[in-house]
Amino acid sequence: GAMALFSCGQHETLLALHEAAIAAKEAVGSSLPAGATGFADDTTVFIGERGVNMLIDSSREILGRNRVKLRVDKCKILVHPGRRDEVNGIDAEGRAIPPAFEVVDSGLTVLGTPVGTEGYRRAALEKAFADMARPVPALTRVDPQSAFTLLQLCFNARPCFLTRVSEPHLYMDYVRTFDK
Question: In degrees, to the nearest 5, what angle opens at C-alpha 40 toward C-alphas 37 and 46?
Answer without folding.
Answer: 20
